[in-house]
Amino acid sequence: MVFDALSDGGHEQVSHFSDPETGLQAIIAIHDTSLGPGLGGTRILDYDTDADALEDALRLSGAMTMKAAAADLDLGGAKAVILGDHAEIKTDELLRAYGRAVDCLGGRYITSVDVNTGVPDMEIIAEETEYVVGREDGLGDPSPITATGVLYGLLAAVEFQYGTDDVGDVRVVVQGLGKVGSALASDLIDRGASVTVSDVNQENIDRFLADHDAAVVEPEAVYDEPCDVFAPCAIGGVINDETIPRLECDIVAGAANNILAERRHAEALADRDILYAPDYVINAGGLITVAEEYVGGDRESAFEKATAIGDRLTRMMERAEETDSTVLAAADEYARERIEASDRTTPATFDN
Ligand code: NAD
Fold it and tell me: Can you tell me the distance from the alpha carbon of 245 to that of 267, in angstroms, rounded to the nearest whole number?
């Protein structure tokens, strides 16, 4: 039964690592390496059950395969979870033991930062393995690059919907003024858009308004705010049965991961003639940044690759129109075709 759960999702390799000396319990899930080695972050979480941890690793690694493939990267999908409360278990020794675990996979898995892991942790892991990105001397914070990708995706969606990418007459509501949302809102204002912002943290709003001209909407009223584009840049699950009937927009395009509470909500948006730009397509700038770091690129080349997200999304939107499907279905199909077209017959490491 356990093995069914692994193979049903198409996973190539799911490894459990333990190190009694440091207390390390980790799962590294390599979903698919048809296009290249699996790249995905390592999160440290105190899961309720081991089964929850496994399920998270399986789900997240599968999502990374699709994200990399849809971003035209020659990378596969993988993800790792370390089980436990990060405040209690995260020691240098544990991270080193984890680094050795990553290393023994020989480059089939490349790790990076995720929930409860950061750049200093990657430096410790790097003492034991070269298969790690998101490093101190790497390409730095990916958020501005993610914001650029979201911006170009949003502009492509605007052009598709209104026939022009001039956002002078476009009203955008940005939910979440964190690292990505504030950069996106700022870029949109620079391009002449009318921007309304929202955040649960008043300090973030005050900081933004000190330099920018934007309207503000209360967090709970954000879904009712009339606009052209709703850009969720805070948390996942915001498009759901409760919020969809309230939306007063033509486009949903934002940075947040898992914007849709469930997949079926893509159809529910389409039923309301709301164009949904799939999150994993337009928020791929972070993955593009670490992928670029791994191949020795620089921030400039990462920014350039993030701008290509717009044209890629356009092709997906055209395909969705031709096939009378949602853009999400068209994006999934695009990613799957890339994977299936790969002629790789042996599992990938970075060098083969
Ligand atoms: P962040 O933590 O810097 O910002 C999140 C912001 O959202 C914060 O200002 C927070 O106060 C606000 N917020 C939280 N709940 C809210 C709510 N209910 N209503 C309004 N505001 C709320 O995070 P970030 O790095 O800017 O990322 C934003 C989203 O984009 C996340 O979902 C993240 O997973 C996703 N994402 C980020 C990157 C990246 O490069 N940073 C890459 C891909 C995806």
Answer: 13
Q: Which residues surround ligand 1 with Cβ inside 6 Å? A: 142-143, 146, 175-181, 198-201, 204, 219, 233-235, 255-257, 283, 286
Whether the pTM exceeds 0.90: the reply is yes
Tell me the pLDDT tens digit for each residue of 189-233. Answer: 999 999 999 999 999 999 999 999 999 999 999 999 999 999 999
pLDDT digits (tens, 9 = 90+) for 262-282: 999 999 999 999 999 999 999
Q: Where are the domains of the chain?
A: 2-125, 143-334
Question: Cα(155)–Cα(109) distance, rounded to whole angstroms?
Answer: 34
Nearest CA owner, ligand 1 atom 2: 178
Who contacts 219 (Cβ-Cβ below 8 Å, separation ≥6)? 175, 198, 199, 200
Exposed / middle / buried, residue 345 (Cβ in 10 Å: 0-12, 13-18, 19+):
exposed
Superfamily of domain covering 2-125: Leucine Dehydrogenase, chain A, domain 1 (3.40.50.10860)
Q: Is 117 strand, coil or helix?
A: coil
**Domain 143-334, CATH number (from 1.10.10.10, 3.20.20.140, 3.30.1320.10, 3.40.50.720):** 3.40.50.720
Distance in angstroms (rounded) separating the CA atoms of residues 286 and 331: 18
